[in-house]
Amino acid sequence: METQAFESYIRNFGGNAGGYDKEEKAARAYDMAALKYWGPTTTTNFPVSDRLRQEIGIDWQLHIHQAGC
């Protein structure tokens, strides 16, 4: 049975982004969850391409609009 030694967790998000066998995988999962939760201007562990930030920014603006913020 394989154990998951690393977890990706975001406070105030109410959830765990998963368990991972490698620290880098957990950090990358955190980055994706952080970008989705806090938007394209959040700080990440690894560089994020401008294109991905732009795509997440579009999704983030849609989320804010739908939530009525």
How is this fold's topology laid out?
Elements: E1 6-10, E2 15-20, H1 23-38, H2 50-67
Antiparallel strand pairs: 1-2
* Low-confidence region ranges: none
Q: State the share of residues found in helices, binned by percent.
A: 40-55%
How is the main sheet built? 2 strands, antiparallel
Average pLDDT score: 75
GO molecular function, one term: DNA-binding transcription factor activity
Keywords: DNA-binding, Nucleus, Transcription, Transcription regulation
InterPro entries: AP2/ERF_dom, AP2/ERF_dom_sf, DNA-bd_dom_sf
Family: Belongs to the AP2/ERF transcription factor family. AP2 subfamily.
Architecture overview:
It is a single chain. The protein has 69 residues and is α+β, with helices and mostly antiparallel strands. The protein has one domain. 49% of the residues lie in helices and 16% in strands. The chain is built from 2 helices and 2 strands. It has helices at residues 23-38, 50-67, and strands spanning 6-10, 15-20. It has a two-stranded antiparallel ribbon. A hairpin with a 4-residue loop joins β1 and β2 (15-20). α1 (23-38) crosses α2 (50-67). The chain is elongated and about 35 Å long. The N and C termini lie far apart (45 Å). The model has no long low-confidence stretch (mean pLDDT 75).
